[in-house]
Amino acid sequence: NVTSDGDTITLTTNTPFSKGRHVRHKADDFANGDLMIPAGKRLGARDLGQAVIAGHGALTVGSRAKIAILSTGDELVEPGAETLPHQIPASNDVMVSAILANMSADCRSINRIADNMDALCAALESAQDCDIIVTIGGASVGDHDLVAPALEKLGANIDFWKVAIKPGKPLMAGKLGSSIILALPGNPGSAFVTATLFLLPLVRFLTGATDYLPPLKSAAATSALPATADRALFLRATITGNAISVFDSQDSAKQSVLAAANALLMRPAHAGPLPEGAQVPYIPI
């Protein structure tokens, strides 16, 4: 768009122009004293680029949580192994470890602990160097549910046991020494829901996040929803566009339903019925 004549160049275009149009001015992007990254935000690639361009060679961040995952049950066998009629593959610890894979956490699995008091106590004691000890299974009140008796034997302080949600009622939380105990139910649907509602927020909080609760969105229900009783429901569902559909079966033992879901539809306790098309809250999963 220019012609040259010796040391002189002349603009030949008729496009209007203004002085400084192609100059990047000081503080045009950000200025000294501007807040670039708020405390408690999880750092991503763009945040790191912002920090460097703002002159920082290092940042103060939260510590990674150290987590032990203990799966219990005489019926459990190693993933991929042949199963007898009374056995099932140990899938829950794999699932919970995968849930935590993108978190600021270092996990170790202590799997397939027999329904034996001495074995369970030994496993719990071996995990006391961790910030969080997650047990899966054995948290109810059956003859082979030994998590509560084992924690009592070791002198743990139980903060609460059983919550008014479905699935996931037998959830237990407390402390064993300096370690936080979170005992999840053994059915996969219950283990996943309680990990989503309790374990993930706990890890986010311990690692310094300020926004640690599960994100809530809303969508239109594709079917009428009945009234609820005395427990909040977290129904496995699928999101398609702006609509949410609940699976007919909500059996917490069905891994296939959980695997096909991409949302947990929330229904509060003691709520009235809702018609088709009603806006309902859900947690993306």
From TrEMBL:
Segments forming a coiled coil: none
Keywords: Transferase
Enzyme class (EC, first level): transferase
Identification of the protein by name: Molybdopterin molybdenumtransferase
InterPro entries: MoaB/Mog-like_dom_sf (IPR036425), MoaB/Mog_dom (IPR001453), MoeA-like (IPR038987), MoeA_C_domain_IV (IPR005111), MoeA_C_domain_IV_sf (IPR036688), MoeA_linker/N_sf (IPR036135)
NCBIfam families per record: molyb_syn
Residues in MoaB/Mog domain copies: 68-205
GO biological process, one term: Mo-molybdopterin cofactor biosynthetic process
GO cellular component, one term: cytosol
CDD domains: MoeA
Pfam families reported for this sequence: MoCF_biosynth, MoeA_C
UniProt entry tagged with the keyword Transmembrane: no
Molecular-function GO terms, alphabetical: molybdopterin molybdotransferase activity
Keyword set includes Transferase: yes
Gene3D superfamilies linked: MoaB/Mog-like domain (3.40.980.10), MoeA, C-terminal, domain IV (2.40.340.10)
Organism of derivation: hydrothermal vent metagenome
Protein EC: 2.10.1.1
